[in-house]
Structure formats: C-alpha cells, structure tokens
Amino acid sequence: MSIEAKLAELGLTLPQAAAPVASYQAVVVTGNMAFLSGQLPFVDGQLVTGKLGADVSLETGQQAARACGLMILAQLKAAGLLERVEQVVKLGGFVASTPDFTDQPKVVNGCSDLMAEVFGDAGKHARSAVGVPVLPLDAAVEVDAIVALRPH
Prior knowledge:
It is built from three helices and seven strands. By secondary structure, the protein is of the alpha+beta class. The strands form two sheets. The chain has a five-stranded mixed beta sheet with strand order 1-2-7-5-6. It has a two-stranded antiparallel sheet with strand order 3-4. The longest helix is centred in the middle third of the chain and has 21 residues, at 58-78. It starts with a helix and ends with a strand.
C-alpha cells in the first residue's frame, strides 16, 4: 500500500508544507538519508503556542507533536520523498515547558505514534525528547527528523 493510500485510510490530510522561517532548508538529502529541519505544530492553520506545565495541557501538547509529525510528512511529500521512506531513523522532540514539567516523552509520543501508524515497523525510530525554555514563535513543540530513503 502506498503511503498516500495509508494516509487516506487513516483519514489524515497533510497540511501545506511550511516555508522555512529563517536561513535553512526544510529538507536536505545526502546519499540515502533525508534530514528534516524542526517542524512546528499547526492545527487548523494556527500555530500551537505556549508552555507545557503552564498554559498547555499534556493532551494539547501531544496533539501539537502529532501536528509536527504531519508537517514532517508534508515536507517529505513536497520534496517528492514520501513514497521513498524506508525507515524513520530518528526524531528529535523539543517541548517548551516549565522547569517542573517532566512528561516531555509523553508529549513527543504524539509524533512517534503517528510515524508508527503511517509507516508500520518502518516508523519505529530512535528519539530524543527534551524540555526547553522557549521555541521559535513561542511554539509549544518542535520536532525534527532523520529518514532513510529507498533508492530511486
């Protein structure tokens, strides 16, 4: 089954791939590896902002991380790479949070679970999930990715 068909089966619609907000590329490919810059969480066209442990709930944080995952998929599609994904190798999750918030891994599961839903075993990956004091544009979550690609 193609990834596009899998997305349709899951009832998922990818957002428009976001343009970079600074001096970088959204996706860089070298060899059979794609490196995706950190993606921010847009839900219904609105950036999810705030801090976990203050004004953003765990559930909203998980939805934000899932939205980052959808944007990762959108970037892969825009680069013509979505159907070439062989393995999601690593996700890096950054969670804007208060010093006493310690559920960053649960937040980033929103993105990790999406990758497993879409790619099956090929979506299972290594990962980091870290708390940070602030993210660009006051985003609540940011996720970057490293993906192995099948040859053309």
